[in-house]
Amino acid sequence: MWILLPGIVYVLLQSCSARQSGCPPASQVEPCVCTNSGITYLKCQNIDDTDTLSNVFIKSSNYRYTEVHIEQSVLQFLPSDMFQGVQIKELHLKNVTLVELFDEEPNNLDMLDVLHIERTNVFRGMNWELLKPMKNLRVLTVYFDSIPTLELDFSESVNKNLQQLTFYGTETAEISQGALENFEKLEKVAFEACELTELKRSMFPHPFNVKVLHFNDNKLTTIPKNMFTGMPNLQTLGLRKNQISVLPATAFVGSLEKLEYLFLDNNPLRCDCKILWLIKHKPLGLTGTCYNLQDQNLKDIEVTDIPCIEPLF
Q: Where does the secretion signal sit in this chain (predicted)?
């Protein structure tokens, strides 16, 4: 009997593991819909009662969802215990109205990899402390939600191993000192279609191993002289649709070696002595025009085309 016990335990463990794959019976997740085609995908739409949502996950106990999408719904909050017993890798909220993101710090989201929030109105604002249990969060994207200022509570609450951070159309006008400086694993940072008027090197770690930076469609007029220094792995930089006229060479000290794409479209760039460094070291993908040279494309301009009538330094 004792000899058979390990085998019995193994069978039971295998049985539990099997119960966690695929979709539950459709009736158990109504009004949500589960599909399984390579990944297990649960979509919940038009939900207006937190108990209804909680019951879906109670009946899904011991299942694994690769993605959970909650859309077109109006709720007071997402219940903090609704994921208890269910593992999910990605949580997507789209066109959801909430008073608060969660009623308190959520349970069982320590394996969450991706959090995507889009056109989701949180009346009390984004409380980053509620993300503390997301110990393995790798990707955070926020689209078309109002986050006027990214403050220090973001750094104090969000997983420091975050690799991708994207804010798009979030009305963000300020990134507070220290809000991002401890996120050393970030590979992509994007604040696009926001309201930023200035950048500071102190916003980010030093050195910073970021590969992709996008600040397209903001209200930037100047670039600090040290802005991209100490970013040796920077490959792509987007500065489209701003009001930048000068791009200082000193801003790229130690960051030019791997820079392949530099997007400067829709900026009033003045092509004179101060931009010779860029003409001499054109990235593979360079976009933008010179307003003082009849909007000639930067990629087509040669050093001899630049009117340099003042000392370079």
A: 1-18
Question: What pTM value is reported for the model?
Answer: 0.90
CA distance 204 to 299: 29
As averages over each run of 10 residues, the pLDDT of the chain (313 residues) reads 42 45 92 94 97 94 94 97 92 98 95 98 95 98 97 96 98 94 96 98 94 99 97 98 97 94 97 92 95 90 82 48
Length of the chain: 313
Angstrom distance (rounded) from CA 106 to CA 91: 12
The pLDDT value given to residue 310: 57
Can you tell me the distance from the alpha carbon of 219 to that of 12, in angstroms, rounded to the nearest whole number? 60
pLDDT of 127 reads 96
Report pLDDT for 307: 83
